[in-house]
Amino acid sequence: MEWAPAPVVLPAFLDEGIGPCWIKRFLEDTDDAELNKFVKDFPGNETCHQPEAKTWVSGPQILEPRPQASDLCQDDLEFRPPSWPQPSDSQQFFSASAPLSPSTRPRSPWGKLDPYDSSEDDKEYVGFATLPNQVHRKSVKKGFDFTLMVAGESGLGKSTLVNSLFLTDLYRDRKLLSAEERIMQTVEITKHAVDIEEKGVKLRLTIVDTPGFGDAVNNTECWKPVAEYIDQQFEQYFRDESGLNRKNIQDNRVHCCLYFISPFGHGLRPLDVEFMKALHQRVNIVPILAKADTLTPPEVERKKRKIREEIEHFGIKVYQFPDCDSDEDEDFKLQDQALKESIPFAVIGSNTVVEARGRRVRGRLYPWGIVEVENPGHCDFVKLRTMLVRTHMQDLKDVTRETHYENYRAQCIQSMTRLVVKERNRKLWAQSKQVLGSP
Ligand code: GDP
């Protein structure tokens, strides 16, 4: 016979027109001793008596489906209490059986995610607190993906920074062009993908680079190939999503664009403004002040302020960090505030490890000293990496999906609808002309 959880049958008088509110109030207002007495004294009927029946007055309980024999290991069988209640068709229990003590109850096939694995009082524990664990387990199994675009004129340290951020060498096969070749070169889009794993968590990282951007003599509209690339990824996703096989869609949408600003200019150049204005509705732009080691600390502060003012002045919408929840702890709030005030991140990149104060660090060695990439006193590299990887990667993906992709999708549907309406009107017009024309 198939096993099913024991149905909870309430005493007859509770069944007779007394609703859940009354039961709730009754349970809340009555103390344990009285309830025990009530349960003992309650005459009940033969079919609903259970020795452990007092548990129906306690907190919610789990009616764990009885595992099938094939699902159990020997251990599970040993842990099973000697007589599992076997409800027959006519038999009904007064309540679920009492929760088993942690040492005697059967082990869940979920292992670590056993909802019973809690230090909480079992009686108060249903088990949905493990839902995040279930999601976590599933996500880890599936792996994560993230697509990062880097844009800005060549030589600003984009590839060095990407390698420093993810401790990889993504640009091994890069061919640097001569000045002559660069004059002729148009903006190209290149993709490097790498699978990285850290503590069992897999991340498929795709870096989209834009070699040639800003390199030509005339850079008018050189942002166009970049915008087209982003739109193509949205289009592909839109097609896949509307297709038959939606299970294994490969998501190549660009989740974030690090836009490199030269440290040598006075704030933003016209090309920077044009690029960011053309792309801010399509992708999360994070502005970067490149090669910060070429500036003194006051210069960094001045440049950052100027860039922020210009971003505001030109109505550019760079990626906005979400507001902190009010119940976050103070440290987190301060960290979040510091992150917001760091825009644009002033960074230093290096692929070499040098020795500084007896430690081996990633840095740049100059005749007058060493600048350390990961020293918060030297640059915002750590803040950028924390934001990108540890704190905001998921938000960047969410904003891409919920805002940028949704905008694209709405536009697509709108233009498709317009086309259909136009076509229908054309047909109606042709039909009416035929009717009018016929004798
Ligand atoms: P990309 O063309 O934008 O990818 O630039 P690269 O990463 O190839 O860097 C160009 C040059 O700048 C190389 O010689 C790097 O060593 C140097 N470089 C990279 N990052 C920095 C930095 O943060 N500070 C300084 N001073 N030089 C850097």
TrEMBL record:
This is Septin-4 isoform X5. Residues 75-116 are annotated as: Disordered. One of its GO terms (cellular component) is cytoskeleton. It is found in: Cytoplasm, Cytoskeleton. InterPro entries: G_SEPTIN_dom, P-loop_NTPase, Septin. GO terms for molecular function: GTP binding. It comes from Camelus ferus (Wild bactrian camel). Residues 142-415 form the Septin-type G domain. The lineage of its organism: Eukaryota, Metazoa, Chordata, Craniata, Vertebrata. SUPFAM superfamilies: P-loop containing nucleoside triphosphate hydrolases.
